[in-house]
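Help wanted!
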Amino acid sequence: MFTRPENHKMYWKEFIHQCTEIGFGSLGIVAIISVFIGAVSTIQTAYQLVSPLIPPSTIAQIVRDTVILEFAPTLVCIVLAGVAGSRIASELGNMRVSEQIDALEIMGVNTKTYLILPKIAAALLMIPLLVIIAMALGIWGGRLAGTMAGILSGNIYDKGLLEYFVPYNVIFALIKAYVFSFIISSIPAFYGYYVKGGALEIGRASTKAVVVSCILILFADYILSALLL
Amino acid sequence: MIEVKNIKKSFDGRVVIEDVSAQMKAGQCNLIIGASGSGKTVLQKCIVGLFEPDSGEVLYSGQDFTAMRGEEKTAIRKEIGMLFQGSALFDSLNVEENIMFPLSMFTHDPLKKKLDRVNEVLNRVNLDGVNKKFPAELSGGMKKRVALARAIVLNPKYLFCDEPNSGLDPQTSLVIDKLIKEITIEFNMTTVVNTHDMNSVMEIGDYILYMYQGRKEWEGSKRDIIFSKNERLNSFIFASEFLQDAKDMRMLEETGRIPNHRNMDALIGKGAPPPDLG
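Answered by r_m:
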C-alpha cells in the first residue's frame, strides 16, 4: 500500500501542512471543551461529596483523575473525530470526485502514501499533544470553577492535585490518545479516499467516517481500560 | 506511439469495452469519439492505467504497460501528461504551485529554474499574470489552460485529454483545440483526445477512432469521416447541424444534387464544389 516517497521534501511539506490543520486547526475547540469539562467536573463532584468526613482536596483528586483518565483522551478525541475526521474525509472525497487523485496517479505519485500517510503521521503527533493540553486546561478549568464558586480555595485544590497522583494514569491516557489518533486519521481517510459519486456522497462518507470513528473510539476505550487498568 | 491491442474491460459483469485495438502515432492528435456511454473514457483510463483492463495490452513505444509493475509503471507515467474533463487542479494550491507540483515532486531543480519553467508553460498556453490566483478564481477556459500547462510542464511524450472542451463556449473550445494541436506538433507528442465535439474532430483530428457501445466501430482520418458509409458513424457525426453541411456537400459532389430544402448557392458559398452539370 505505502511505498517509498518520491520526494522527501514534498512529503515533509505535506506532513507539516497536516500538522497545522489537525493541531492548530483543532486547538480552539479543544481548549474550550477542556476548560468547561474541568469546571463542570469540579462543580458536580462537589455537589455529590456531601459528607463532612471527606476533605475538599478530594474534589481536586477526582477531577484530576477523571480528566486525565477519561475526559481528555476520550471526549477530546470524539470531538476531534468530528472536527479533524470529517475534514480528512471530505478533503479526500473532494479530491477523488474532482479527479485530483487521478491526476496525482497519472503523474506517478503513490496517492495513498502522499495523501494518507502524512495525515496519519500528523494525527499521531498532534492529537496526543492536544490531549496533553486538554489535561492541563481541564485541571485548570476545575480550579477556576472551584475557586470562583467558593467550593474550595486554590491552595487546597493544588494540594489535592498532588495527593495520590499515579503517573501511570498519564501514560495510560497517552496510549489511548495514540490509538484514538490512528482511528481518527485512518477511518476518515479510508472513507474519503474510496468515495464514489458526487457532492452528496462526499457528505455521506464524511458522516459515516465520523460515526464509525466515534464507535471505534468508544470500543477501543473499553478494551484498553479492561486490558491496561 | 501507443498501441492498444484487444482491450477488454467490464464492471460487475457488464462489458464496457470489448476487444478494442488501435495505433496512435506520435506527432498527431488521435481522437476517440463516440456518444456518451460508448466507453471512450473507460478506454482512455485503461490506456493511462487508471483502470486495469481485463485482457489485452497497452504498448507505450513497444513496452507493454499492462504487464509493468511498480517503478517501471511509474517511469512511464512520468512521461504522461493528462488534461482532465474537470481540469483536476489542486484546490488548495494557486496556479503557480499547481504547475510547479510535478517539477517539485520529480526534479531537484532550484526554485528559480522551476519558476522559469512555470512561466514558460504559462506563456505557452497564453496565460500570463495569473500565477498567484487560485483555481476557484479562474474561468473554465483558464482552468483548462492551467491544467494543460501542468500536463506539459515535464515535457511528456504522451498527452491525454478527456473532453477538453466540455463546458466551454465555442470560441474558447477552439483556442484549447488549437493549443493541443500546436503543442502536439511542437513537442512531437502522442496525443489522445476523448471528445464528442465534432468541431474538435474537424479542427485537430489526425486519426479518429469511433466507439459504439464499447466496440471500435470505425477508424480513419478527418477526410475519411466525411465520406464514410458507416451508418452509425454518420448518424453520430451528422447529428451536428454544422456537419450536416458536410454531408450535403458530399451528396452534391457525388450526385450533383442536394436535399430539396437546402440552398445550393449557400452550400457552394460554404466551400462545396459546384456540381458538374455538363
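OP: Thanks! One thing I noticed: Chain A has one domain: 8-45+53-228.
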